[in-house]
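Appendix B, example 12.
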Amino acid sequence: MVTEPAGSGHILAAIDVGTLTCRLLIAEVSPDGRLHEIRSDRRILRLGQNVDRDRRLRSDAMHRVAATLKEWRETMDEVNVRSFSVVATSAVRDALNREELLDLVKREAHVQIEIISGEEEARRTMLGIRSDVPDDVTDLLAIDIGGGSTELIGHRLGQPIVARSMDIGVVRLSERILHGDPPTGAEVRQAREWVSNETRAAAKDIQLPAGLTFVGTAGTITSLAAMAQHLPAYDPCRIHKYLLSLEMVNELKRQLLTRPKVEREGLPGLERGREEVIAAGAIILSTIMETLGMAKILVSDLGLREGLLLDLWSRFPKHAKAEG
């Protein structure tokens, strides 16, 4: 949902209501469209728990999201946010009772949620990624691994974005296949086959020219980058533009698949609450890289939130932008 402008400044906000995580970004937008972060937050709220099986959002999960959005709405009011965008992705797209969430959030937090398609999610994600990529990078292929879906996004400068959304995410894969703790060899093989087949089907419609830049965004990939560097705390400056090799991804996957969930807790670089799904994320990333023949991936700390803000900013009249 996009609010109507309500002030003289250009402080904007974006909220991504994801299957696993909800994310907030408040930023000031300069006249040239550059984002200057004011506040950000993210919460692992597990909105999509059991949605793959039941096709319904759980009441407790919806109330967690509503409470968080109410808190964030108060924060936006405190810093005089002029306009904001709130979107929901895979879990809400799939849920038969999605209207319950929309009504609850509107009533409790006084915001409206826009449910976006996988392709629109990919388009706005690419806007965020492109906002901090060198101008001489012509061809990009990006992946966004979420809780319920994974987007494969191709873009050549001057041409439309081509995106394909796969109904595979870390929560969906964990709930559907990876039941063992740790997962069994048979489960891992089944998961890899599923991801590989879906990746090949999605990539058919996307050009993969030689020399393209392969980029990854969102929590799974940034977490693996943090783990690869043994970071004691999340540091965006160490994550953004980190080059993660397939060899390292496979090593991290091996470490994760030999540990039960309880022994993953506290691993350097692993965000608390992600220990249940990070093994699924490593399987997805390594399988996609192997299927596409990618030996390394450039990690982006920018993605959907930044794309939401830039998309919102693009809708402002030119004279309003110039006034700042």
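The longest strand covers residues 35-44. The radius of gyration is 19 Å.
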